[in-house]
């Protein structure tokens, strides 16, 4: 059986197939994803790790995204059922974890631990099958993920399967002893050891009656036997080694079976935990009265980006409840370059985070922080933000920015999305604009879409006649107040820093001139 609540054809694999994006650390910091992840209120560490891994390992096709969206829609419609399933999976793992740990593994100790593990896990699997049968009877399950899970539990592990497993586990306790067959090899050594099945009619040692003190007549054993004398350590060790050799292959097989069942429960636990994290985040945002939608993933090459009432969920989660959260409408069409200019502290960085976060949530199969959101599925998502001065003085600011952009360019592929926030502003406007223009031209020609926030007027104005560039601007009223909305608009030669000066120092004075 496979758990398929995140992928249609396999389990979620954060260490192999679902590795995070390159430069995911910068992406996490720049988009403030830790705020988002904390708001998911993960039920346990496994859910937290899965939510982080899934967010940073975007799905690459619309079909994959829609599959996960359908599973999450079922989770939303049957939240209490999903929580029941998650609790049972967590209980199975905890019960198995509490079993004794094999400190000095021998075939016998490994076998005993594996048998106990299978005993615990199959009992929990039986309980899960009963729960799944009850939940499957509820109306409304539509996703392939959940209906497939219920069908497998009903069809692949039926009552006959459980009876067969119980019989094998009882035999593997070897309460009637161990039966080994072998051939004599060179020097009289046993070779080709094979573990046999004990006589089912042999008495169980636990059922034996105490020996009679005065037996009636001599006993005639059916087989040749011998008993080691006490303190015969050498032969006792030889017998123990013979026993271990006979049990070795069986111990490996049973341990593998136990690992497989434990891993299945762990996968179920992780993938259910991911959907619970999304449900918790959804509730936090909905409680603030903010819109949420099922975003529309578009085929790579469509080059579309459109949103209505798009907002930054990180800001919504940290702002005071009385603070109104600004929402923006975007219609970028197929333009490979979106330039965002305008007043300082006007909402440009917040807008950039909202675009990046919405794209990530879309490609992890979740909802989007908007009333409507549709976007092309991207091959990757990267950020290039200004950094503070290098405390070690190893690099100058411009050198550091260029080195970081070079590292991003090494892994960028056509179809990627790059978010830049005040990049190359560490030098003068003429040089910064020229550097940025060359990089933007080369990357967009390679099929990379870029959203570029900048106060470099020469750069933004230089793309004025470019039909492939969308130019947006942070809105500012005539009295200097910011609406924090991003609207279509040409760049202005000022960022209105004087507004900030007046707000801080008062309106009576004027900003000093150099």
TrEMBL record:
Domain DNA mismatch repair proteins mutS family: 335-509
Region feature (Disordered): 190-224
Entry GO CC: cytosol
Keywords for the protein's UniProt record, in alphabetical order: ATP-binding, Coiled coil, DNA-binding, Nucleotide-binding
SMART domains, sorted: MUTSac (SM00534)
Molecular-function annotations in GO: ATP binding; ATP-dependent DNA damage sensor activity; mismatched DNA binding
GO biological process: mismatch repair
Stretches of the chain forming a coiled coil according to its record: 111-138
Signal peptide: none
UniProt cross-references to InterPro entries, sorted A to Z: DNA_mismatch_repair_MutS_C, MutS, P-loop_NTPase
Pfam families tied to this protein: MutS_V
Name of this protein: DNA mismatch repair proteins mutS family domain-containing protein
Source organism per UniProt: Mangrovactinospora gilvigrisea
